[in-house]
Each structure stands twice: as structure tokens, then as C-alpha cells.
Amino acid sequence: MEINVKNIAFDLDFHPSNQLVAVGLITGKLFVYRYAEDSEPQRVLKVRAHSESCRAVRFINEGRVILTGSPDCSILATDIETGSPVARLENCHEKAVNRLVNLTETTIASGGDEGCIKVWDTRQQSCCNSFQVHEEYITDMTLEPVSMKLLGTSGDGTLSVCNLRSNKVQTRSEFSEDEPLSIVIMKNGRKVICGTESGTMLLYSWGFFKDCSDRFTVLSPNPVNVLLKLDEERVIAGTENGLISLVGILPNRIIQPIAEHSEYPVERLAFSHDKKLLGSISHDSTLKLWDIDSLLQEGSGKKGEGKSAAADSDDDEMDMDTDDIPQQSSKGTKRKNNGGARGLDNTSDFFADL
After folding, report:
1. Contact, 354 vs 77, CB < 8 A?
2. DSSP 8-state code for residue 189
3. Which of 33, 139, 317, 329 is the most buried (most CB within 10 A)?
4. Residue 280: beta bridge partners?
């Protein structure tokens, strides 16, 4: 399925239980589409969410509300049924809001272009923590839910780990000239993979985040804008050349191109709630919904061996920080923008009506 969203899309998110997908556009608009197996997708909601681009989109509150973030430094909460604004937080970051991720049923995290990561508690209706951990914009974030560690990547060339239980920055990697753009946690929490501006994928062992333990160069030289975990040993990668590829990280290290957006950069990827569809957006102004089973079957005939820059000498049992091992769990393109220096003036009003 292919949907013409009529402009460049920056983010997408699927409803957690229904056949709905939300898209944030460069124009500041939010579109929501209903999709079905045997019919064309229908747009069911159109909202002028922000005065500037809509960079981040996330469903919360069991899908009853959509959050959007923007370079206008605001986060908007919109009712999914009516399209009416539930609440708007102005000046939530000093610069543009670049990323939003769900943490728990009652908390989310936002990442700004000033390098700050903030955690918002919907019950307390306020910002419950702020981590000024990076010097440049936040490119991606992901949560390890068992240990409650929030991992972030930044345009300053570093990876950070924030402990949400102790409300402290636990560690930060050494500077890398290979700017990390995307991040996923693999191997049941034992490995962390970062996609970079050069196309190299950096592999970190959990508990050893100062420097990567290996590099996987098969996608170079195309920047890896987005990574989406398929299972514990395979990720789906969206790259600057418009390709969507299935990449086996450990132990086989293979790459299978499975889809494409012409020559335009793949901006974001997401799974539907039942994991039957893969959603992708690009600078070609289309939202594409791919059947996962068909993609994997077609890709199985396109295997290509990938070779790492260095042998993976890590021992999964020996290189662990035993004080910091998560238990078994089931678990963008650069866009710096200007933003005024602003404070958290209206924090208490944000989730007042959620």
C-alpha cells in the first residue's frame, strides 16, 4: 500500500491496537489514516498541529491521544477521536523537539536540538526529570525496560545511558567522528547497535559503552537514518539512498535489500501493532505500508554477505558488567534547527486533561 501524504514526512507511529497510522509532516500537519487489508487507506484525521514542522509523533494513553513535537519548541496532545487539542506544552525545550519515545504507561521522553533529554510524567502533569547529557541535537532514543535505562544518541558523536530509577546519567561514550543517527538494543539486552552518518553500524556490549566493540560496514557509505529491530539478531535499516534492508547483526552478518523509496532517504520505520505491516516514510512524500511476510520471502533470495571492519571478539558471557546486566526482555537524518532560549513556563498545564 502506498499513500501520497502530499509533502515530506518526518515521523510515523502506529496505533497500539487499531488499524491506524499517524504521520507528521514538514508543514506542521498531523495526518491519521485507517488501513485495511482489502481496501485503500482512508485519512480519518487532519490537524494543523504546529506552526513549524511536525518532527515527532507518538500515540499514548492506549491510543486515545497523539503527541507531536516540533521545532516551535512545543509538544501538542491531540484527541484521536475528535482531533481537538487536549493540551499544549509551550517552551518544553530550549530548541526544537526532535524525538519522542514511550517509556511506560504514564511516562514519555523527549529529545531536543539543544542536546537535552526530558522525561514527562502524565500523572504529575509535569517534567519529572531532565538530562543535559549532550552538546548537540538528539538523533534517537530507546529504552531497556527491565533495567529502566534510556539510551540516546546525538549529533555530538556520542551515546548516552540515563538511569531512570536513579535519575542520573550513568555513562556516556567517547566521542566518535562517525555521528550516530539511530539505535536499537539486540541480543536480549546484551548488544546495542548504532547506525551512523557514514553507514557504519557500531556495536556496543552492554555495560561497556565507552567505545564500540565492533563495526559493521556493509551499508557504507549510505547514512543509516533509522534502525528497527525485527528480532534479537536482525534489524531493518533505512538508509539515505532510499533502500530498506534486512541486516543480520550476530552471528551471520548478512544484508538483504527488501524494499525502497526510489532514491529518496528513508526517514522513519515502524511496525503495526500486530507486526504484520512495516510502515516507512521518505522525502518522496509517500507513506508506504509493506507486508512483512512478503518482504522477508522476497528478500530471502537476495542474500549478501557482510564483512565487519574487525573480528567480533566479544564473548557474550565474559564481557558483561555484572552489576548492570538487563534480564531477558522481549522487548534521522541530521536536522539541526534554531530555537530560542526558553524556559519551562507551562509545564504544569501539559497533561492536565489527559
Report:
1. yes
2. G
3. 139
4. 269, 288
